[in-house]
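=== Structure Prediction Worksheet ===
Name of assembly: unnamed complex
Input type: mixed (protein and possibly other molecules)
Chain count: two
Listed entries:
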Amino acid sequence: MEPTTTLEATYTFARFLSEVFTGQNLALLGAFLAAGFAGIGSAKGVGNAAQAADGLLTEDPDMFGKTLLLVALPGTQGIYGLITAFLVMVKIGIIGTSVELTIGQGGYLLMACLPIALVGYVSADYQSRVAVAGINLIGKQKDAVGKAITNTAMVETYAILALLVTLLMIVFFKL
Amino acid sequence: MAISPMRKLTAVVLRSDAETVIRRLMWLSCVEVTSPDIESGDSSFDSEYINAERQTGRLDRAIKLLKNYIPKEKRTGLFTRRPYIKQERYDADESVYAAEYGHAERAEEISHRSAEIENEKISLQGDKETLQPWTSCPLPLDLTGTKETRVWFGTLPASTTDGSVWAAISDVPCNVEFISEDSGGKYVTVIFHISGEDAVYAAMASLGFVKLDRREYKGTAAANIARIDNEIKKSDIEAAALEAELYAMAEKIDDLRLAYDAASAMLSVMTAKRKLGETRETVILTGWVPLKATEKVAAQLDKLHCGYEFGEPRAGDEVPILLQNRRVPALFEPVIELYAMPLYGTYDPTVIMSVFYFIIFGLMLGDVVYGLLLAVGGLLAVKLLDLNAGIKRFVGLFAVCGISCIISGIFFGSYLGDLPVVFLDSMLGIKINTPALLFDPVADPMLFLVVSLVAGAAHLIAGMCVKFYILWSSGKPFDALFDIGSWFVLFAGLGILIVNREIGQYVALAGTALIVLTQGRAEKNIFMKLIKGLGALYGIVNYVSDLLSYSRIMALGLATAVIASVVNLLATLPGDSVIGFILMVIILLVGHTVNLVINLLGTFVHTSRLQYIEFFGKFYEDGGKLFKPVRAETKYTHVIQ
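=== Predicted Assembly ===
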């Protein structure tokens, strides 16, 4: 291969990279990670909890109201991811007035999205296990709804803390 | 204001009066019947109980079955109000409801018979499908042959051709007749002389011939199908008659519903009756009565000439818990019931908890319009809908908390989020600041975090104050001063530190010293005392983590505000045309409804959690059992006493 073409190829590739990895796109990647991973976690979580609830409902159809909260709880991480994604979209002007971002700024927003993306995904999964256990618990003891919900909410604490970190990082982001 | 004091009721009642006594007490709804301490085997009232349970169950199933047959004007909907019925109707002798019991029994029979008919029909349809291809066959299905011949009915694979059949049977003496064909194969009859049976069998087997099982049938296929059609028709007629009977029965659904409620009242009586202690001529009723209700109960028992006494609870008694609060704090009792009831004789935290529940709920869901929806919606729901008691209590709780949301919405300038700002800017081009009385949390989240933590600190200190009060009033003033007071000195010092470094420093140090010196006082060894004291100082980590837990107020508050502002942004994007305006209204309606529902869930769960873990953790002694008096749980009617 001629040296000039290697150089040209490298140059083309570099240009490709610089066009793909703009500040805007890095920030969007962050938004995707937040909404995507927290959402996947919640989908798994709500799915597990809802299956357990349906199992209980085959025995006792009147328990729907009591299981509803437990089924809904692992769904909140997805919402936190959504909030994050929306905030990022507003900041970078996908929604509202358009702005230009440097790669550094885009990278900052990407990083800011990571706490809720990771913690949201993992906590929704673990939370759903507690929710499933809680549903089994109220299947045996109808009065234990409060305890089951409280235990499930314990796991959520860490998703909220991660959301807090993410929100603060995005809100204090200066262009 | 407190946990209601309880009295232990012991009453001796003539056997023949037992049911009447329990029934009267049931209408008072203030006696929880317990099993007496004496040893007892099976209750002689078991069979009555089982009978009541069976009747209730049967009526319940009948009502559920008839649900789809009820005429339109009698269907119950969201706005239907349950009828008010006089108490005597529930006390009436069972024979009054004989007709309804009969209906319920008949409904059950009909339900079984309908299922049978359905199954018969399916099996008939199956037969019909099997016979359909043979309609044109003139031979009766039960014909196996004559003295010298045999007849087979059966199918050949659909791929079989005339040629392949002729080839296979060319040197076998038999007659193969094609009757019909469909995707399932070709239907043929085979007639042959008995002497050639083996050869025919081999030839037909090579073609993939499957014999038809004809044992059940007599006569030709066409005749059989006619018979089956006739039977199906008969089944349909019977099913229609049964259905008509159900429709007729459903006309009297109101009577059945009343009968159900009367039966379930009877079941309540029987459940209590089973717990009675027994002698030959009398029964012994033991139970718990709130102090306030003892007079009422005594009056009733006097009327029935029973011997009774009210005793103080003794150590080791499992006294049921009834919380007594004024109207507004009582709305917050469900929050405590969801967690666990306090132990008898301990502190009822409802009032102080309700204050913080109110404030924290508002901070997490602070919006004027959302608050109005909760408060007004809740009020309307209670007024207009005939909600059952359990739901009503939660609706009331949310309605009160809605007021808190309104207040906090005014302070932080949230009216459907930042709708006024966004709307005026995008539609009219007017720029205004957030109409906040204090500040806008989205613009200044750190300040909002401070507000959250201050609310949290107040909550935690209130919890410690309660513990202080409990210790002090239970005659342990030193425990109160050392275990709680020393921390207060430290906290005060840390607080003053912000304003005045020097004084704060000394106060904080004094608090620390107090903790180290007093927390090991249970130990005998001087070194152990010191180590224990230093260890207690480590407890500050718990306080810090408790406090940081309140940052969730800010996170959830911001979540509400951010989603609302995103909805507003999306809603105002289409611009100021007619279509744009319609779109805006739709997006606003849908978006804010979703936001309210999602955040109501989060707010309810996390406000409760802050009470359970952070607040109750400081002082609460749980383990009590909720007071469950004998009462008539009516489902379809209200009782007028």
